[in-house]
Predict the structure.
Amino acid sequence: MQITKTTENDKLTLALEGRLDTLTAPLLEAEVVGKLDGVKTLVFDFQNLAYVSSAGLRILFMAQKVMSKQGQMIVKNVNSDINDIFKVTGFSNILTIE
Amino acid sequence: MGFNFRGLAFKQSMMILAAITVVFGLIFAIMGQKTQDILNKITIENGEETSRANVNYIDKLFNSGKLVGDDIAETMGKRRMSKADLDTFLLHSLTNARNLIPQIVAVVLAYEPGMGPETPKGEFMRLARFTENEIRLVTGANYQDKEWYSSTKEGKTSRWQEPFIGEFVPEPIAVYTVPIFQKDKNGDDVLAGVLAIDMSIEFLKDEIATIPVSNGGYALITSENNVAVAYPKSIAQGKRNREIAVKEIRGNSTIDFDRKNRDPSGLFMGTVAGGEESAVYYTKINSNNWTFMVVWPVQKFLQDQRDTRKLFLILALGGYGVILVIILLISFRVAKPLKELVFAAKKLGGGNFDVDIPKVSGRDEVAEFATAFSNMLSTLKAHIEKEKDMKRIERELDLARNIQLSMLPGAERDENSEDDRHELAPFLLPAKEVGGDFYDFFKIDNDHLCVVVGDVSGKGVAAALFMMVARIILRTMSKNLKSVVDAFNKTNYALAKRNNLMMFVTVWAGIIDLRTGHVEFASAGHNPPAVRHEDGSVEFIPSRSELVMAAMEDTVYTKQTYDLKKGDTLFLYTDGVTEATNDKDELFGNDRLLDALKRGGRQNTSDTCAQVKRELDGFVQKAPQFDDITMLAVKFNGSDEPVWERYEKTVNVAENDKGVLKSFVQDILTPMDGAKKMQMKDAWERYEKIVDVVPENQDILTAFVEGILAPMEGSMKSQMQINIAIDEIYSNIVKFSGASEVTLIVEVRKATLSARLTFIDNGKPYDPIKQADPDVTLPLEEREIGGLGIFIVKKTMDSVCYRRNGDKNELAITKTL
C-alpha cells in the first residue's frame, strides 16, 4: 500500500493506494498515531484504495476518536465495495464520508 | 415424677369419685326418706298401742258413768219423790254407783223452780257426796246460771261437761248431766230438772304418769275444748290446766290444735304447754269426745333417726375413703408405666433409638402396650437401618441416572450441529430404576449428520455404564471412519471382546447427507424407525434388523439406505415407547405410535416428541414406567444448494503419477450419462497450500487464491470480499491460535462460479463463529473495535462453518464469485 501525505496549514490529507489490510495497517498506524498534533482537518482519500479489512477499520476508528476532539475527519472518494463494508460494520454512522 | 392434675390417674379417680358421690348421695337421700317413713310408722304404731288400752279404759269408765246417770235420771222421771225419799234415793244411788265406779264422788239433783219436792215456787238442789270415807247429803243453791245446768236445760240432752273444780267437791271432776223429764197433767214430757254425776278425774293424772312411753314421751288427755285434763306433773310446772295448751306447727306458724275436722287418730308436729317441739299422736275418746295424746319431744324422737344417719354416714365415708385409696392405687399402677413409656417415646421422637423401654410386669393392657412398644422400637430400628441402605442405593442410582443424562447432548447447540438443512430434537425420560437407553447425534463433517438410538439390555448401574461405553465407542468410530457399517463392526468387536457380564445393546444409527437426504444406516437388533412425510403420511422405514451388538465378536453388519425427501421427519425410538404398558397389560404398540406421529402433523421436531409422549401418557395413565423412554426426531428440510457428488484422490506429486489420476477420473465418469459428464467436467477443482504461521505469509495465501479465482472471471467485489476474508481469518489464526502451520484448501466449481476455502490449522481449539457479534449501531464513544473481522466475514460470505477435527481447527467459507 502507498500512502501519499499532503499538508496544507492545519489540514492533513492521506491518500491511500492498494489494500488496507492486516499487513498494511501498521504503516497507516505509524502515520497517524501521535502525528496529528495541530491538525484540525484530517482527510482520507480512498480514490485508489482497493479494500479495507478490520485492521484498517481499527486505524480509522482510532483516528476518528482523536479528530473528534480536535477538529474533523473526512473520508472521501469511497468506492461502493468499501462503502458496503462501512455500512455492514456501522462505520458509516461514525465516519464522515464524502 | 410430680402429681399431674391433668393426668390419666387424677382424671379417672375424680370421675369415679364423682360417680360414687352421686350414688352415695342418692342412697343417702332415699335411706333418709325411708327411715323417716319407717320411724313415722313405728311411732304411729307405738302411739296406737300406748293409746288403745288407756282409751278403752277411759271409754269404759265414762260409758259406765253415763249408764249410771241415765239409769238414775230415768228412775227420777218416773215418780215424784218427797224430800226424804229423795235423800234416801240419792244416798242409795251414790252408794250403788260407787260400788260400780269408785271414781263417782257425787250424785246431784237440781230441779226447775217449782218442780222440787219442798219449795213449791223456788229452786231446789240436793246432792249426795262422798268425802273422807262417808257419804253426806248437802243442799245447794244458785245453780240455774251455772254452765252445767243451763247447757243441759237448753240442750235437753245428756252430756259430759267440761271438767272443772267442783263447788262441793274440791278437786277436778268430770260431770255427766242428764235432763229429767216428767209427765204433766196432759201427759206431755216436761223438764223437771237436771241430774249430774260427778266423777273425779284426779286419778287420771296418776294413771297418765304411769303409762310407759318410749323415747322420753308421755301421755296427755285433753277435753273436747282442747284443755288439758290429765298430764304428767313434770310438764305442768305450776301452770294451770288452761295454760297447758296443745299447739300444732304448720310450716313456720303455730296454731291451736283442733281435732274437729281431722281423722279420729293421727300424727302431727306441735308443742305442749309452750314446750319443745314434739311429735304428737292423738286418738279420739268416743265416750266423752276427749282426746288422748302420746307426746314425744322431737329431740328424743329424732334421736334414733339421727343415730341411724350418723352410722350410715360413717359407713359411707369409710367406704368412700377405701374406694379412693383403691382407685388411686389402680390409677397409679396404670399411670406410672404409661408415664415412663411417654418419657421413652419422647426420647425416641428426639431420634434416640437406644432408649430403654421400661419393663412392665403382669398381663394387663399396659404391660401389653409396653411389650408392643418395645417390639415397635426394634422393628423401627431395623426398618431405619434398611431405609438407610435403600437411600444409599437410591442415591447411587440417581447419580448414575444423572451421569447418564448429562453425558447425552441436550440440544444441537451442544454439538454445534445446527444448520438450516435439518431440525433435530431428542427426548429421554429415564425409568425410576436407571436403564440403558441412549441417543446421540453429531456431525461427521459439514454435510453429514449422524443420528443414533440404542438400548442396553438390563437395568441399573451396569446397564448405564455399558451404555456409556457403547455410545462413546460408536461415536468415536463413526466420526473417524465416516461409515455406519464400519463403525458398527468396530464397536461390536470392542464391546463383544470383553463382555463378561453378557450384556448386549440394540442400536440403530444412520448418517444423513444433509445435502441430499440420503441416509446410510445399520440396525443391530433395533426397532425400525418411523418416518412422517411432508404430506402427513407415516410409515416405518424398511430396516433389516441384524444381530445385537456385543453378542458376537465377528458380526458383520450390512449397509442399508433410505432417502429422506424434503420435509420428511425421521423418528427414532426405543422399545420403551412401543412396549409401554397400561394397567390392562396392553402395549402401546406400533399402530398407536404411527397414529401419534400422524397427529403430530407439521409440528416441529421437539413438539413431535412431546406429542408422542402426551399420547403415551394418555394411554399408560397411572401404570408405572418400567423402561426408559427415548425418542429422537430429525426433520430433513432439504438444501437449496445444488448437489454435487464429490470424489477425492490424493497422489504423490513427486512420482508424477498421472495415470492414477486419469483412471480415477475415468472410473467416476464411465457410468455416467451425458448430462452427468457435463456436470463432472465442471466438478470441483481442489487446490491446497500449506504455509507457516507468520503474518507475511498472508500475502502468499492471497496470491494463491487470486491465482485460482482470477481465471473464473467472477466479480471484483467477490474477489475483494474473499481477500478481506482471508485477511481476517488468517490474521486471527496468527494472533490467537498458537498454530505453527496453516493449510488452505481451495475448491472451485467453474460451472456455478462457486468457491470454497477451508482453513486448517493445528492451533488450540477456537471457534470464531461462536464469538458474539459486535453491536454496530453504537456511537463512536461507546464502540469497541474488537470482533469486527469475523463479523465482516460472516456478513460477506455465503456460509461460514467451523469444526474441530481431531487436533485441528477447520474453518470453511463458501462464496459465489
Remarks:
- The radius of gyration of chain A is 12 Å.
